[in-house]
Every structure is written in C-alpha cells, then in structure tokens.
Amino acid sequence: MGEFTDKVKGAGDKVVGSVKEGVGKAMNDKELEAKGKLQQVKGSAEETKGKVKGAINDV
C-alpha cells in the first residue's frame, strides 16, 4: 500500500477501534473493549508506517 492509503486505513482503524472500545465499556463487554483497544494500536502502527513511507519518499 502507499503512504496515503496506510494513513487513511490507520485513521479508520483508530476510529472504529475507539467506537468498539466505547461500546464494550457501555455494555460491560471486556472482550469487545479489548478488541477496540487492539484495533486502535493497529491503526496507530499503520499511520506510522505511512509516515515512514512518506519520509523515505522525501529523501
């Protein structure tokens, strides 16, 4: 994937993960809450990957 795609996918995962975490907390569903947190971490990693690709392309 390209730089922009990675950043967009990462941002999307962070949003969806945040929603999952919130729903999990509201419904006292620890598994859904944990999945949401994990998806947010995955999103952050994807965004970082996109930033690194951008930095490499700038060099």
TrEMBL record:
Domain CsbD-like, residue spans: 6-57
SUPFAM superfamilies according to UniProt: Hypothetical protein YjbJ (SSF69047)
InterPro entries in UniProt: CsbD, YjbJ_sf
Pfam families tied to this protein: CsbD
Domain of life: Bacteria
Family: Belongs to the UPF0337 (CsbD) family.
UniProt name for this protein: CsbD family protein
Organism of provenance: Acetobacter musti
